Amino acid sequence: MIKNVLITGTSSGVGLESAILFAKNDYKVYATMRNLAKADILRKRIKEENLNIELLQLDVTKVDTISAAINTIIENDGKIDILFNNAGAGFAKTTEHATEDEIRWVTEVNYHGVVFCTQAVLPFMRKQKFGQIINITSVGGLVGQPFNELYCGAKFAVEGFMEALTTYVSDAFNIKITCLEPGGIVTEFMTSAIDKTKVEGDLASGEYLPIFQKYLAGNQQRANESKEQVYQTGLEVAMVALKVAQSENPPLRMRTSKWAEDFCKLKTQADPDGNKLVQQIKNSFL
């Protein structure tokens, strides 16, 4: 039986590449995005390569659109095999300078959206006694980084949410959960993050300015000198996601590159895939 997969945030980057890659590997793909007007590239690929992809509108910050997309999949297929929580957005700014709207936005997109999408699929996966949830988190979900505290906080929250959830849904309902932790990705995600990383307002003349400028300079240097080592393409990350989807016993967490692995080593060396800790939690509480 063909497995289906719901992927969020497929207008570009990892989501776009994953939709195409999964379809080429015999999955039925429900490619979702907030604005279907941005689906031109995917529509073209679907037509040119006759891909088994259906486009659906889904805004991870709006529960009604999540429910509508899930209901469409259930009506079409009677099941949902894989949820791929890919949608997210970068953000770098001091906590002092972030507005209330920005703080809510970065949390809604990167954390609440994951929770709401997961909440929507769980009843169906529980009833069918199988399912898989794959999440694009970040090395920023394990390691806090300067001027990224709001973004990292949201990604840490996803990691904690998924770690806790897997302790009881994996054995009881055969629902497998994995957090993929990339470093830098050469996609529109990076461009969007850079666009939101601006020296403006009080920051332009305040005490944070020298630190922030050093941070920006370091980012640029890494991009210029170590692009091949630090930054992956969307397709490279999508290939890791496909490997996880095809695994019988996927790990709780996995870095998607050697650079990401090295960057997180102090946090992960005792339990690289997170499975030992999950088993310890199960032994302690269940």
Walk me through the structure.
There is one protein chain. The chain is built from twelve helices and nine strands. The chain has a single domain (4-194, 232-285), classed as 3-Layer(aba) Sandwich (Rossmann fold), CATH 3.40.50.720. The two termini are 34 Å apart. It is an alpha/beta fold. It has helices at residues 13-24, 40-49, 63-77, 100-128, 149-173, 188-195, 209-225, 227-230, 234-245, 258-263, 265-268, 275-285; strands spanning 4-7, 28-33, 53-57, 82-85, 131-136, 175-181, 184-186, 231-233, 253-255.
Mean pLDDT, all residues: 92
Secondary structure category: alpha/beta
> Remind me, CATH topology?
Rossmann fold
Output the number of helix runs.
12
Low-confidence segments = none
Radius of gyration equals 19 Å
Write out the CATH superfamily name.
NAD(P)-binding Rossmann-like Domain
Sheet with most strands: strand arrangement: 3-2-1-4-5-6-9
Q: What is the domain total for the residues?
A: 1
Shape: globular
Portion in helices: 40-55%
Number of strands: 9
Q: What is the level-2 CATH architecture name?
A: 3-Layer(aba) Sandwich
